[in-house]
Amino acid sequence: MSDVEIWIVIAALAVSTAITRSGFWLVGHKVTIPRRVQEMLRYAPSCALAAIIGPDLLLDPSTQAFTVMNEKVLAGIAAIGWYLWRRNMLETIVFGMLFFTALRLLHLF
Amino acid sequence: MSDAPDVTTHDPAAWRDGVKTGIPTLFGIGAWGLVVGVAMIKSGLTLPQALGMTLIVFAGSAQLASLPLIAAGAPIWVIFATGLVVNLRFVIFSALLAPHFGMLPWYQRLHLGFVSGDISIALFLQRYPDPAPAPGKLSYLKGLLYPNWASWQVGSIAGIFLGNAVPAEWGLGFAGTLAIICVMVPMVVSRPALCGVLVAGAVSVLAAGLPYKLGLLAAVLVGMVTAMTVEELGDKFAPATGKEERQ
Fold it and tell me: What is the ipTM of this complex?
C-alpha cells in the first residue's frame, strides 16, 4: 500500500470510530429506545467486556486452539480471587502480572 | 426534559472523584496501548503513520484488526467496514450514555463520544446507572475519559518508539485483560448478569473464528439475551415483588 493509501485508511478508521462511538450521542436523544431494549442494554457492558477477554484467556495465541489450563486463565482466576479479597484494582493488576510472569518463567505450560 | 445546569457546571470534587476511580485502570490501559503501538511499528507502518493512527483513530482493537489487512493490501472499504464492525460494541455503549448527556451541544457530544473507552463507560454507568440529571455527572465522566485517553496515548506512543525493544513474550497486553477483569467482577453481582457474562465469554471463544471480529458482537447479543431470560425466569419463580407490571 502506498503512503497516501495508508493515510486514507487511517482517516477511514477515524470515521468508523466517530460513527460508532459518537453516533448515538449525536442523534440518540431524538431516538426513543423501547423499555425492553433498554433493560437488555444494561447487561451489554459486562457482556462486551467478557467477550473481549474471553478469547485472550482461552485461546492459544499462536494456534487459536482452545485451552483451559494456561497461564492466562490461571493468572486471571488468581486475579479475580485477589480482587474479591482486597477490592483494589491496581494491586490486582500487579499481582496478576506477577503471577502470570512467574507461571511463564516456570514453563509449566 | 428541562435543562439541568447542574450537570454541565464544572464540579472539581466530581472531577477528582472520576480521576481517582479511573487511576487503577490506567496502567492496564497504558500497557494495552504499548502493545498496540509495538504492533503498529512491527507491521510495517512508518513512524508518522503509526503516530497518526494512534492519535486520530483511537480504537485499539480496530487498529489491531486493520494491521494485517493493510499489510495484505486489502481494499480500503473492507478495512473501513472491519473498523465499523470491531467498534460496534461502542454503539451499544453510546446508546447507554447518550440519554445522560442529551442536553450538551453537538460538538461536545461528538468529542466526548470519540474519547470514550470501554472501561471508562463501565465505571461511569456503575456510578450513575440512572440517566436522570445529577450534579457533577459531566465532570465525573471527564475525570474518567481524559486520563484514560492520555494514558492510552502515552502507552501507545511509547510502544511506537520502543518498537522491537519490548519482547512479545513479556505479555504486557495481559495487563489490559486484568484491568477488564477488575471492572467486570463488581458488575456481575446478580445471577442474570453472571449468567450473561459466562455465556458471552463462551460465545466469544466459540465464535472467535468468525470474520471481521463478528464473534464479539454475537457474544454481546447472546449474553444480553441470556441475562434477560434468566431475569425473566427469576421473576416468574420468585414470589410477587411488585415487578409484575411488565407482563
Answer: 0.87
